[in-house]
Amino acid sequence: MHQTIFSSRKSKCNHWFTSTLRAFKYTVRHAENIWNVPTLLVIDPLSKFKSLRNRYHNLILASKKQFYSNLVSSCLGNPRRLWQTINKLLHRKSSSPLPTSTSASPVADSLASFLTDKISKLRLSLANSSTSASTCSPSSPITPPDFCTFKPAFESKSLKSY
């Protein structure tokens, strides 16, 4: 007649699901079964079932809140354990920041490739910005000074004593 609201499938072990909730769930299911059976009772079985179901739902929320609050509170003195707990609750998996390669050659090749690409992109970006800057400005670009003549460098006598 009516479809069952509660699933009969077994689910994962929930540590917040207490024996009180289990007993109350039985009471709600019993009220649901009474509602499903056509009767000539004066009492409305649907309203009783809905009332019990809503109370059961609120008890579940309170139980979860209490359980998770206690779990987080137990880790407050230890930040590492706290973050591990939070990540576990959020189903986060930490990825290793280190490369997976066992030999150094692929890592070195990968780094060299990354740096080469980075330099090429930077040069292209600078070339594009200099051409767009020269087209936007009415004056000619300033040329850097020529380094044709250098003064010879001499070693200072005071530095020799070090």
Count of DSSP strands = 0
Overall average pLDDT: 75
Tell me the span between the first and last alpha carbons.
99 Å
Question: How large a portion of the residues is in β-strands, by DSSP E?
Answer: under 5%
| Overall geometric form | elongated
**Percent of residues in helices:** 55-70%
Secondary-structure map with pairings?
Elements: H1 19-36, H2 45-73, H3 79-89, H4 104-136, H5 157-160
Describe the structure in your own words.
By secondary structure, this protein is mostly helical. It is 59% helix and 0% strand. The chain has 5 helices and no strands.
Give the tags.
162 residues; mainly alpha; 5 helices; 0% strand; disordered N terminus
Structure at a glance:
It contains five helices and no strands. With 162 residues, it is mainly α.
